[in-house]
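Interim report, section 4.2 (structural modelling).
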Amino acid sequence: MPDLSDAAKRILVGRPVRSERLGHTLLPKRIALPVFASDALSSVAYAPDEILLTLSLAGLASYTISPWVGLAVVIVMLTVVASYRQTVRAYPSGGGDYEVATTNLGPRAGLTVASALQVDYVLTVAVSVSSGSHYLATVLPAARDHEAIIAIGLVALIALINLRGVRESGTGFAFPVYLFMAGMGVMALVGGIQWATGTLGIAESAQFDVLAEPGYEEGLMGLAGGFLVLRAFSSGAAALTGVEAISNGVPAFRKPKSKNAATTLLLLGLIGATMLMTVIGLARATGVRFVQDPHLQLAMNGQPVPEGYEQDPVIGQIAQTVFAGFPPMFYLVTASTGLILLLAANTAFNGFPTLASILSKDGYLPRQLYTRGDRLAFSNGIIILALAAIALIWVFDAEVTRLIQLYIVGVFVAFTLGQLGMIKHWNERLPSVVAARERGAMKRSRAINAFGFALTALVLAVVLITKFTHGAWIAIGLMGLLFAVMVFIHRHYQHVADELEIEDVAAARALPSRVHALVLVSKVHKPTMRALSYARATRPSTLQAITVAVDRDAAEQVRRDWDAAEVPLPLTVLDSPYRDLTRPVLEYVKSIRRESPRDLVVVYVPEYVVGHWWERVLHNQSALRLKSRLLYTPGVVMASVPWQLASSARSLVNPDDPGERLGDLPAPGMVRRGE
Amino acid sequence: MPDLSDAAKRILVGRPVRSERLGHTLLPKRIALPVFASDALSSVAYAPDEILLTLSLAGLASYTISPWVGLAVVIVMLTVVASYRQTVRAYPSGGGDYEVATTNLGPRAGLTVASALQVDYVLTVAVSVSSGSHYLATVLPAARDHEAIIAIGLVALIALINLRGVRESGTGFAFPVYLFMAGMGVMALVGGIQWATGTLGIAESAQFDVLAEPGYEEGLMGLAGGFLVLRAFSSGAAALTGVEAISNGVPAFRKPKSKNAATTLLLLGLIGATMLMTVIGLARATGVRFVQDPHLQLAMNGQPVPEGYEQDPVIGQIAQTVFAGFPPMFYLVTASTGLILLLAANTAFNGFPTLASILSKDGYLPRQLYTRGDRLAFSNGIIILALAAIALIWVFDAEVTRLIQLYIVGVFVAFTLGQLGMIKHWNERLPSVVAARERGAMKRSRAINAFGFALTALVLAVVLITKFTHGAWIAIGLMGLLFAVMVFIHRHYQHVADELEIEDVAAARALPSRVHALVLVSKVHKPTMRALSYARATRPSTLQAITVAVDRDAAEQVRRDWDAAEVPLPLTVLDSPYRDLTRPVLEYVKSIRRESPRDLVVVYVPEYVVGHWWERVLHNQSALRLKSRLLYTPGVVMASVPWQLASSARSLVNPDDPGERLGDLPAPGMVRRGE
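Predicted structure of the assembly:
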């Protein structure tokens, strides 16, 4: 019942407001930066934590290596940035890695990238919101131990905001992102000065010793230790997600689009790298401890931590130490970090339906996800994304450490295939270019992409090896499933298209010999009379009025009314021994078709149209069922003759109601696509 | 999405089996008795318990009055039986109290009876199944403390069995009901002999003292005590439910129908009364204690009962005492009691949808509940009843004592109004009868009904006064709600009928001046060509093929294909600035209507029909949405031109599939209605 769900949706997401279409306001760099930054920068809120947490398994001494792990992540990050600067120049259309891989490596590669990205969008939401709810618990102790339910509530809230279609504005992103940057900048500056002047305090957790887990008695020495460092690096590589977002958003930039996008990308990379190193550096300097389970791994003088000890995120711990004498700054840094995490989740709510729409256009996902201007298409995407993210949060109890094991596999699949596609792109272009300068530039680009490919492939291998059994297999399984579903859908559409293809134009254009019109009469009232008039207006070869005697008394009454209305046409009464409306009509239609198989039967069904959902519950069900059955009978056309009751004027789907022009609303993510 | 729910239903309730229609096998008395007995007799499983439980509040001494309370219930029961013997003679059509009240007292009274009966059907299910799960716990200790969830599971099971449409047979009822009667008979006989010979043991609970609650220190003396006796009587009156069932089932009896029904009714009353008195008598003789909370109310030598003490139902306690040396009989009595309670619940699953169907026919409930031959109608009723009963069981935690407070209000409303209607019935008939003998019989009948009315009205007043604050208000509230909903629905149907009535036959028969045919083209494939052929076959005044340029490339492709197919008709491309399919078509249709308001526009929509539910998810949505919008535009006919894809042959709703002929299955309860 689409109408009931319409009504429910109305209650949940409110009456759609008619708003002017978003103008083609292209983004200057100062606005584009915050629009695309939240996803990439927000990972600084959990990536350092995961590095420290993973290293902590080998005991306190292993923390000394954390800056080097951070540095490795930064190197990969800057390499990826350099690679994507080539992509945005070569593919300014905003197709991103899916387009690059499909164009250069074929549809299977494109589909692999698409599956990977879709799964990663879900994980972006799950990880960001879970992390955000932990930040919330840092400033709001009442939220502790309720992180999962809070995270689920936040996902639902973000989904609802996106379903309502709040008008997105580039400047709306600017404030929280710049606030976050400013807060982090002040923290870096104040912390740096304190460190230089020797006045930097130590974190509350610095008093604890970190106990090595069994198997890591030798610290980071040996095979297990080396593996652990690689795992720490893999987790830290979560800082790279979101870098690819700009490559999907080139059309949204002001001209020269590609150049501005490339510059913004570089800026983003530098800011992200700086932030990451700042957090890791300050964590070292203040002696922050961050472990999986404080009660098992932390100790003071051989005693475990006190019962009520709660471990805050690393940025929270640093802010508490640096701004020990000035709590407002602590709250500002923590709150803006939480906020940017939610913005990052919101990014996925823009990216997921957009990619789904592209995949739908290419025939890999149901058509309903396609139509760009249709909000419903995006609504479906939003709901699917929210449900998937909620499921993950629920299963993993909003634990960032466990969710992060599933994360970034997808992003690195996209990175690797995207860069491989770029290499092929340059290889194909090079032979046709003769100008030495242009060739030099292309070769430079190719070299960058080749290095990017090599490095991201290496990281992908490291991520797969170190995380596979920890949860990456789940992500890979989901990607495989999605891939299979998309291939299946594509095949189905192809199969249907083949079946519907016209082989013989002449046969397809052959006219039926005669037209038999049947008018279904359930009562003698205005809708029936209208159906009869309309049927007569089409001048069929034969015209019959039929009624089904489901109830003997009722059929008798219809016959009497028919005579009273003086209709110049006999009424045929079909017997219904089983008191069923549908079958006698079906049998009758089939008997006509049997006699003259080349004729056409047009069944006129009078319907009256009501306005409220509850009225729809009270009416018209038998006509609907009959129609759905008749669809399966060849050679039959069903003509619905509607009669609009007075109440239909206030219908939810009344096209005259300006509030109903759903197509007018800007779809989420439009601002990023430059539409 | 009706197809998805179809698929889900298929999984739950199985593929409908084609079965021959139930023959007109009318019931002889020996079969009719068990068919109608389960509801009326099963109450002996909880009515004595509730009498003892209520009396126990005033301490052990009050148990001495229990036979007198039982006797009062028996008197009312026999009065009601005598009254209904008049009803079945006067109204052999099986309409029951609803018909009697509607015919004699007007539709409002009829509606009151109907609301009351519907609410009581729900309570029959809730009380019987709750009681049944307590009997189960008596023989199956593992079930203890899980009574509510077991009861909910049993309701779901009974509902499922009814949804699957197990072929009902009168003889199917005979075995368990006669088994129950036999078990109770043997228990009465053996217990009676033991009592007469002084060898009757005492119940396990007889060792306990029953402590009076505060306020009842004087026992049953005083106002509070008197009120308590009335309350005990009200609860015991639950034994009367089900007596009215025969009045709805007269057509199922063999001829002479009325006489046989009256005889069966008398038999039923006598057996019920005997059973009730037997149970109460044996409970007295064996010293059974039955209280609300054994841990608060029972004591032995001033000490409370042991921790693990569990209180069994009265029949269970008696069977344990009488058959102390022979456990199989104890199990048989308990198990057959549990079984008959489930049969009683099943009765409501027959009665509720039948009454709903009658109310629907009279325009008080949605039409979908009407069509008798259509299983779907009964399915809806079954599901509604099951959900309502489950809700009650859940809210009241399957506690019979609390549920019984809501019970029987409805039945006594029906009794009272039914008898009042009967008095009026005789009053209206009397003046036209002259034969002295006939007049005498009528006057005798009227006297019986008058006495029945007076007594049931008195009992209704007692029930209302003693139970109102204990929960009867909930039942009354539900009846009021149901009454209001039914009045509302009736008004709505009336309103629509008025709106659709033909005032001016000539105007209604006026033909539209011209017919404009539009064929919607989304792609150039077989379905489109078929739609075009069919449209041409109807020889419209004008014919246009239109396509909406939702996507520029796609529209260009359609135009090229159109030219390639050499269709001798230009293709009109409608612009869609908002990439929306629906609005351009609507605007175009409206523009035609504006130019020539008396013309008719027929929109031919090619549709292809698929077989699997998942295929339906992948196709056709935009056409559906367009159709639902066009319905609201006056002067438009929507002609669906279906193209059956190969997969449609295995569709769920394929009319050629013999398994699908839903109308063939006997509906639940048919055996009771003599259909």
